[in-house]
Structures are given as C-alpha cells and as structure tokens.
C-alpha cells in the first residue's frame, strides 16, 4: 500500500449537524445543502475520495463516500468499522463497486469486484500511523449505530481517552481494512459534445482485456 495515500488526511471543521436540527423533512435539508453547494466555491475534492456501493441481504443498494488509503496489484484498500452497515453488507455479499470523480480533470474511474478483509498486519500498520485522535475515535464510535445525542459520542470519547491515557491505543478488533479485488475497471474521460471516451478493462483468467465503450 503506497504510504502517500495512507497519509492523506484533512480535518473537517466547517459545519455540524446539531441535535436540534429544525428540518424534519430530509428533502428540505437536501435542498438547502444542494443550494449551498451550488453557491459555494467548493474546495478541491480530495483526490482519494470515492463512492462505495454495497448491497444488503434484501438486495437493496447502499452507497457512501470513503477514502482510498492505498492500492496495489492486490486491489484497492479502504478502512472502517467491521460492524458498520457497510461491514455487515460486505460480510453477507462481498460484491461492491467504487467510483472516483475528479471534476477538475473531467475524469471518472469505476472499479468493481469482490471485497475481502485486509490482513490484520496491514490494518495494524495503518491504524498505528493514524493520529491518536482518530485512533480514539475508532474506539469511541459504534459506526452506523443510533446515537440519542451527540453528547453520547463525546462521553464515549472521554471514556476511551481516560482508558488509553499515556499509552498508544491498540487497533480495536472491530476496525480495520478492506481490499476490493478488481475484476472490472472503467476509465471515463470527458470530451467535447458529449462524445466522451470510455475504456473498459475486464479481468479474464488473470489477464486484463480492454474494450472501448460508447459514451
Ligand atoms: C469525504 C468523506 C470521507 C469518508 N471516509 C470514510 C472512510 O475512509 N471510512 C469510513 O468508514 N467512513 C468514511 N466516511 C463516512 C462514510 O461515508 C459513512 O458515513 C460511514 O462509513 C458509515 O457508512 P455505513 O453506515 O454505510 O457503514 C467518509 C465520508 C466522507 C464524506
């Protein structure tokens, strides 16, 4: 896993979602966020940011943004909570898809394949390289579980901060890496008049075969 990706890290400090958020209707909130996004000069997207789609036991698809933390001939690596919704979906159905979008370059890459848990050693190495605050967050957050109030999360953080005071938190068993082993990778390059380029690579018996697709 190239370290340059694993070390890419931004702190998110712009906004919050308060417990007393006045919007009961999610479509109203979405409309406000979309309008704000339209008016705001957005900072550049993190280059390693991607959408990961998984499918649950009922065949329902779920998609969320994640950060790619490395890639190699083995596949594409990301990290998270093994008991989270995505963790449970991947345990039941390893087939997943990830999509990267680099607007400034007018490029999209789609990767599809099966996801396996990364080796414990690799997860340990990456966990140890994270800032302590992120390590404590991995202990404190039961990712995807309901929280009554934000204060519950803050209380859990205080508890683990005390528990690991003065020593390096070890990687929790519930947190670690995944590797998406690609069987299809498609590169999309925007071109004038919607006549975009698409190159579709598919793995057949260990050999990548390439086809051009119509836009
Ligand atoms: C820019 C961005 C980067 C994110 N990176 C990660 C990540 O690397 N790992 C992770 O578990 N969640 C990450 N998240 C949060 C996920 O989108 C999602 O909320 C979380 O993984 C829980 O998803 P789940 O309930 O489907 O498991 C990120 C969100 C954003 C917006």
What do these coordinates show?
- This protein is globular.
- The chain is α+β, with helices and mostly antiparallel strands and 215 residues long.
- It has one domain: Pnp Oxidase, Chain A.
- Strands 1, 2, 3, 4, 5, 6, 7, 8 and 9 form a nine-stranded antiparallel sheet that branches.
- It has helices spanning 3-6, 26-39, 85-92, 120-129, 132-140, 150-163, and strands at 49-55, 61-67, 70-72, 75-81, 95-102, 107-117, 175-189, 197-204, 207-212.
- Helices cover 27% and strands 33% of the residues.
- The structure holds flavin mononucleotide (FMN).
- The site of flavin mononucleotide has 14 residues, from strand 2, strand 4 and helix 3.
Features:
single chain; 215 residues; alpha+beta; 9-stranded antiparallel beta sheet; 6 helices; 27% helix; 33% strand; globular; binds flavin mononucleotide
